[in-house]
Amino acid sequence: MKFEDxxxxxxxxxxxxxxxxxxxxxxxxxxxxxxFGNIRLDDISSSKVMTNHFDILRTVLEAVSVKxxxxxxxxxxxxxxxxxxxxxxxxxxxxxxxxIRNRVNYYGEEVPIEKAREFINxxxxxIDYLLDKYLGEFK
Length: 139
What we know:
Four Helix Bundle (Hemerythrin (Met), subunit A)
């Protein structure tokens, strides 16, 4: 599958760049990082905090996609957008976290504390990288 396939299926729509929306998404992501960064990881919180960090990453990717002129309606399409813009390694990591998030949210799986900590640290690195490389002028 390719990113273009998501456009053909209506899962991605071409839009005009919306700087106000991009700024709003970045601000939301920054606030959420602060919020979820203040929650101590334990047996109860680890899965939810990890999935919320994934959602923050998805928000940043939404801003990247809006900057590129796309509105994405299916999380899997972000994987292919990342591949299209030359971020193959990040696309693999994003897709891995997307699947973990889905298992937590839809099947009740748990993410152990140490795994959650590892995933959260990696997600934060991806977020920082994407903000710097693709959204630097909005920071």
